[in-house]
Amino acid sequence: MPLIKRLFAVFALIGLCVPAGYADAYDAKPRLVVILVFDQFRGDYLDRYRAEFKSKNGWNLFLKQGAHFTDCYYDYANLVTAAGHATIGTGAYTDGHGIPLNEWYEAGPDGQPHQVSSVADDRYVLVGAPAGTKDLTGASAHWEMATTLGDELVLATGGQARVYGVSMKDRAAILTSGHATKGAFWVDHNTGAWETSTYWMKELPAWAAEFNASEHAAAARKASGVAKGSFYELVGRSAASVSYQLDFAEALITGEKLGQNPANVTDMITISISSTDINGHAFGPDDPSQKELIVQSDAALDAFFTFLDKTIGLRNVMVAMTGDHGVATTQKAGDAEGMPVLDFSPGDFTTPLEQKLEEKFPLKTKGKYVLQMDNPYLLLNRGAFEAAGVSEEEAENTTKSMVEQIFDGFVSRTGDATAGRQKEPPALTNIYTTKQMREGLLPQTQYGRLIAHSYSPYVGWALHLNFGPYQFPWHGSGTTHFSANSYDRHVPLEFFGTAFVPGTYHGVVAPVDIAATFASLLRINRPSAAVGRVLTEAIRPGGVGTTSVSDTQSVGAPVMRGAN
Ligand SMILES: [Zn+2]
């Protein structure tokens, strides 16, 4: 046989052997991509509680059968839910996808600033909302100024790939999945009923209506011991609500036949579990209830992934898991542990600030100069400054100096040397104006880069603030997240699938690497503003026939064979 023919024969043979590390959206390899987010899930939790995880396909799907990254940090400084989910979906930071906060202010028809949510879209109305719902304003991803991995998957397959988003929170369902999705579903806060918006459909699919009409919500209330009151706030913090969300995802996968695409291309679902955020805000990361919720989620995840194994086969599924942000220790836990955590009132500085601003620039319109301290941005009322003839530069620079003066004036209040450890006063560690962020007038340091990545035109006239470690303006109980400090930026990064080499990986990676890595494996374009790195260290090397069966057997991972 001539050399050229022999080479063709070899290549043909290679082509027939589907390699373990091979993935390709155009050939349904894998059949289903799952991006799983746990809201407010800090990067230390999985290792901290791993001894408690008993299920095969629960957290151990990642810790024992997948690629487990110990050092995943967001590389920006506005660690809030909407921004985090947009970052996971788009593989870009706020300077790429535009989402800075859960809500911000836009000028209304009356010229006054009006608060808008990161997904509210009044061109559409809610679908499936319970009778009597007062505000039927719809939702879409229209504020998200970048494409998502799901969008690119749809485009790459000529509209054949089906992409869906699910979460108790609208912003978490919508911003992670994107624009070209077939549906996004979230819950009505009072009842827990699943709803969507006319951006996607005019009525709920039959399987979703059936889910709402079933005993699921009542069973979750019963299991969590919450007979009355807000489903979202009270049931939402329980392990029953983790199952409630995963059961809905199962109903969606079954109802829409996800992973069984008629055009034989890859489908995708993003699932964000809100429960850890609801419980975490109320009780903090160190409370036994948060540990219990994470440990109980193990069984819920095991049920979900076992369902996927039975219906689609885990060897045909590729999963990434992460969090949208971490969280700070509560002041109560800090006090008990001898760590000077400080939960102070935002009014401590916004009230004297407003007074100083009004003294310097007498108000010429209704409203105030300070709209809100919406961590980490101090949002200013552009209209009020403009009415007083003050430019953006003067408004932001003057406000910055005043905030610095106010913080300089905070002192430790007790002079009693026998009183034990004293609280440190609130410390302003960094403050930058919108103008500095927009024009890139930031220090050439790692911190400067975090701030640059937090820029969005939606923030308007404002200042970006960061405080001392474990210091946060909040409500006096519970805790929050938003800052440039590591504990807010640290999240898990986990992968499962035949494309990955199981193991624990040390070294800094970021949630933006999910979109980059999956786009590479699926052989599709990255999302439009993606900045992540392909995590080649965790991808099976070579991609073609390099993994032996014994390799995969030794780590318990499923083996993708030629016939799949
Ligand atoms: Zn969140």
What would you say this structure looks like, in words?
It is a single chain. This protein is α/β, with parallel strands linked by helices and 564 residues long. 36% of the residues lie in helices and 18% in strands. The protein is built from 22 helices and 19 strands. The protein has an eleven-stranded mixed β-sheet with strand order 6-5-9-8-7-10-1-11-18-2-19, with helices on both faces. Helix 8 runs antiparallel to helix 11 (239-255) and helix 12 (275-283) packs antiparallel against helix 13. The longest helix is centred in the middle third of the chain and has 24 residues, at 288-311. It is globular, with a radius of gyration of 25 Å. It binds zinc ion. Residues 39-40, 81, 84, 277, 324-325 line the site of zinc ion. Zinc ion is lined by residues 39-40, 81, 84, 277, 324-325.
